[in-house]
User: Fold this.
Amino acid sequence: MSAQNSQQANINKTVKKLCLIVVGMVCFVAALVPLYDLFCEITGLNGKTGGPYTFDEAKAAPDRSRLIRVNFLTNTNEGMVWKFWPEKGAVRVNPGAANTVSFYVKNTTDRVMVGQAIPSVVPGAAAEFFHKTECFCFEQQILQPGEEMEMPMRFIVGHELPKNIRSINLSYALFDVTDSVTVAQTESALTVPAAGG
Amino acid sequence: MSEVIHADHHDDHDHGPEKGLLRWLYTTNHKDIGTLYLWFSFAMFLVGGVLALVIRAELFQPGLQFVEPEFFNQMTTNHGLIMVFGAIMPAFVGLANWLIPMQVGAPDMALPRMNNLSFWILPFAFGMMISTLFMEGGGPNFGWTFYAPLSTTYAPDSVTYFIFAVHLMGASSIMGSINIIATILNMRAPGMTLMKMPLFVWTWLITAYLLIAVMPVLAGAVTMMLFDIHFNTSFFNAAGGGDPVMFQHIFWFFGHPEVYIMILPAFGIVSHIIATFARKPLFGYSSMVYAVASIAFLSFIVWAHHMFTVGMPLAGQLFFMYSTMLIAVPTGVKVFNWIATMWRGSMTFETPMLFAIAFVVLFTMGGFSGLMLAITPVDYQYHDTYFVVAHFHYVLVPGALFSIIAAVYFWIPKWTGKMYNESLGKLHFWLSFIGVNITFFPQHFSGLAGMPRRIPDYALQFADFNMLSSIGAFIFGFSQLVFLYVLIHTIRSGKPAEGRAWEGAKGLEWTLPSPAPYHSFTHPPKVTDAEVQG
Assistant:
């Protein structure tokens, strides 16, 4: 019967190892999400742009020899009724120089709404060289009924932008996130001022 | 070989099966559990088949005849889910339960109680999933691939039941796989070295590793969906900083190994059957093992070929295109080995052999259309068309399913001790073979002409191909009732089968009497060269 006991011990060992694989794969999935974001950030795949970029304008050294055309595209996601467009469809900029453009947005409904713009850059290879020092996409917009707004966006195209890229398309998709803003925020921020009339 | 009864044999199970229905609930016997798995998968096969016939009835003619588009989507989704997770996978696990202990000379599976649990989870999982079809708002309608945000933001309320059902199926598969690996690695009879193992055992060993590796990934994907739906996270929600494309990457990282999980055991089965009826040793045993291992490895690095059209840099497209095409090499090795095994063999064409040969021919066709889909630039044309539907049905129906049917015909004398009726078996084969080709072959053409998949209505120019397809589907569907009849007829009034039911059959299972005794190989058998496949 000792042969059977040692077989049972071997089985237990195998099962433990296999459970470790399962646990390992669960951790792997959990790690996939940050890894995916990191991968996209490093490679610029998916046209994801980074967060706020710090830039010292005094040290700006525009590269006058290159002119990059930056096209702006806007669209509203399904169910989002706001008006949303860029003031200028395109600008020509020098790499290394700071630029400011602005976007127009209007809440056309009679209720308070929250919007969130999500940027995307094409070609993807340009995404990591497209720096935004200030952007409405870094935060959510809360607009009162009928309210309209000019939203500024400051950006710099990095010197390191590959030579073969002559134009960059920056697209913003505007999402209606009114429902997913948490209840606490809803209560504090979305209070409609009492009707003045 | 006669059964030796030993005096010192005194565990609880030496008196044969318990009486009554509770036997099936409490059983820890690998043969009982194998039987449960096989009947369960047959039931799911019929349910999934009914859904398929609803789809084909609606597509018989252009326009909307029988069902609403919303319901049609539920039919395509549940047909896919039920066939993949409810019919094909449990059928292979059932075959593994029946055959692996007998083929390696073990008395039972390594973890009999867990074996019971991994089966009995399944009826609950599928009960839960199918019940959603009767709920307000309907069941899952987002395709079996459940891409976010279709399966999160736009999903019916019942999606939570679907998520938990998938969790249960995953748990069942992982437990089943752990059991199979533990059995194969630790309970082989002395002399049964790894490279002497029957190929069905080898293919299942590798499949089980695939399952253990990717089922947690699927569980992770549906858990993220659950959080997005109920806890306001944004894994797949662009508005919150998430990424819907990430869902597709995670899903297909599971999904591509999953499609090989459904075909590798089929390779093992067909290797047994072809060698038996060609009355020759299997050609290239070790290359078969290495081919399966390479296919399993490659399955982890090709996932993005399912999503060429989401936008991918050129380097990515090239990598996934070439790595996908590389899979044709080990697969080709297998196909040529099967042909070489048949070459100058004294072949006979009993029903299992017919299904096995049909497998080789039709699976190869499915493989070739897969190669066409692997070519990135043309995939833009084929993506999400009926060409894809034709491709994966060719590898899954006359591929995986035919191999399962072949296995049932091949081993049913061992299971029941009785021989099936050969004429009825051949009738079943020819009806299925003709039906399957009439159903799926025209779909290549409608797909190439641009007919999208998962639609309840279509442009008039596709009408003829669709009508053909529907006629074939009904032939194929109803011919499975012949199969059911053959099974019942065999169990009730089949002629007694010998221990070695087939003249050329090799393997330890054939050294047992037919039907195999409730407890077999309680003492390890001698492994002789005559019973070794390699």
Q: What stands out?
A: Residues 47-185 of chain A form a domain with the Ctag/Cox11 (Pfam 04442) fold (CATH 2.60.370.10).
